[in-house]
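Input for the complex:
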Amino acid sequence: MAEKVKRIALLGSTGSIGRQTLDVVRALHRRFKVVGLAAGSNLKLLCEQAKEFTPEYICYARSDNKAARDAIAALDCKFLPLEEMASRKEVDVVVIATSGLAGLGAVLAAVKAGKTIALANKESLVAAGAIITAEAEKNKARILPVDSEHSAIWQCLRGEKQPPRRIILTASGGPFLDYPPEQMNSITVVQALAHPSWKMGKKVTVDSATLMNKGLEVIEARWLFNIPIEDVKVLVHPQSIVHSMVEFADGSAKAQLSRPDMRLPIRYALTYPNRLPNNDLPGLDWDNFSDLEFRQPDIKKFPCLSLAIAAGKKGGTFPAVLCAADEVAVGLFLREKIGFTDIPRVVDKVLQKHDNVSSPSLDDILAADKWARQTALETARSILK
Amino acid sequence: MAEKVKRIALLGSTGSIGRQTLDVVRALHRRFKVVGLAAGSNLKLLCEQAKEFTPEYICYARSDNKAARDAIAALDCKFLPLEEMASRKEVDVVVIATSGLAGLGAVLAAVKAGKTIALANKESLVAAGAIITAEAEKNKARILPVDSEHSAIWQCLRGEKQPPRRIILTASGGPFLDYPPEQMNSITVVQALAHPSWKMGKKVTVDSATLMNKGLEVIEARWLFNIPIEDVKVLVHPQSIVHSMVEFADGSAKAQLSRPDMRLPIRYALTYPNRLPNNDLPGLDWDNFSDLEFRQPDIKKFPCLSLAIAAGKKGGTFPAVLCAADEVAVGLFLREKIGFTDIPRVVDKVLQKHDNVSSPSLDDILAADKWARQTALETARSILK
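Predicted:
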């Protein structure tokens, strides 16, 4: 217990990953001090968290009304913008658990400040991977993955000196893996939100159901592990026990396995390079260990996966457009404005209309994001007509 | 290619692992120089190997006849006893691929000389694990596993700072996994030698069929990875793709996967800490990756597994007795003197008759080995009556 207390800024504390991060901190409270909490919504929960973890700094995105300002003022925390919180001197680890591109500025601020970043936000890296990784290298910032798949890859690469020959990202396949293809267009929101193995936020749960999530993860893996997208392979593994695999130059491969519980990769990132005994999370039940099922993804039934991989290969502003169009389309689906199979239709149409900017600047990416959101809305409207 | 050439002494060069080791050396010839070759049988092959690899030193166990002496003399190599070859100054890595306890003296000589040892011989470690590992630690010798299972564990532990919480040794289950239990006593030698996934020597192939091999590996794992036998679990995995798994303190586990080809673990041990590109051995066929099957071992049908684990837990001279009795019993089976199910019967009876010596000296171990061989022969005779 003589180890230095790690000081954490948690961005996106009221979301699914944010709350589970605080579970981990609670379980290992002597090792961590929460110095900053930031949330985009759920003021009530943010205030409860602030009372429990007594951070010095707080940020709430919707503090443009008096009630919110009063609630924040009552907390005895200093209000700080996201970017500033992510780059404060007294922060050792910035956990980025915000959703969408809202966290991009904070990610960039953190890498520029040379921080260690536990990254649970996919979109920043998908949209601006080239910029983020270049800045991270320049400023000796470390990006530690929190996604279960990328944590698995990172764990498999641990201690290895050579880069991987191939990465095998596993996908649960979501709730519609065995659903009749001809009924995909009648999938309801309730059905799409019932993920068979993972408990997650709504957006990522729908992305898991369309396999867009896996496509985004392919692009994320490309940046996190500096590997060509061609060498990232997706395999469907319905049980979500093998979280991903890595193949090495000599033909040997490694896989990481565990119960599907996000607290494990969160914990791994926060306590790295240690692995602490974990009584909250039992190991796999080896006495009842069952067969591990694998199959190839059905890209006809799940076109989002191919759309994402194609956008990733094209690069430039395409991945940003992919993310933005998907976010809009999923939002419309969740509000029952479009059907489940309209999600890839909208994304595809937006991608087709896009004029790529290769080697984009941050402004180019933000402009592409804005354009894609608008175009996605228009496209959705034209589909509904 | 600027790396230092590793100078290898290969003990047991004409056996299955020995020949595959030379395959690896042939493929990576610039990185290795074979300085010594030793064999216990197959003089013709030894001479061919000596002509191809031009070692400085040679050893042949059966050189007590003129023809053998003449053949060796014609080779332009210096004859050296096994122990001396294993400890020569100019040797960087000693590959121990001898069978049975014949290599024990050489293993001890190598650890005492502080060598790096690529160990493919199970029996030395099973019988004298406490002595070998203590000497290795004292003399800063490194023991690198060559067995596919232990190589897998070693690969999974790569870069990890904490000891494993559990080791999961996988077993193919051998050719009789689904064989009717009531017909086990009529298994022929030809049937027992037809292993479904691995090409190996006769003794180890029969040991795989009885699961004795897995039991010996449990004891081996105990010494190689300093883990209580209670924390080593055996799982049957018929495809032999997952070569073993390791569970860590945090509830995460890693597995190593590859095609079943002994050249991979041999190569890994010889080139460690590097992994060299390997065009001879393709990776797994991810485009046709199938389900991985796992089941619990049937200890009623395969009593050798429990006998070995029990002997390992008792410790002392029991593991040496286990090895020796098994070697005699398998030898008798291969010569069709006893039946397949007589193998565990003989081993069990010998173990039951044994008076244990705890914390045995090398002499105690050799005496127990001798006693067990004699007692196994007597026991087999009494079974046949």
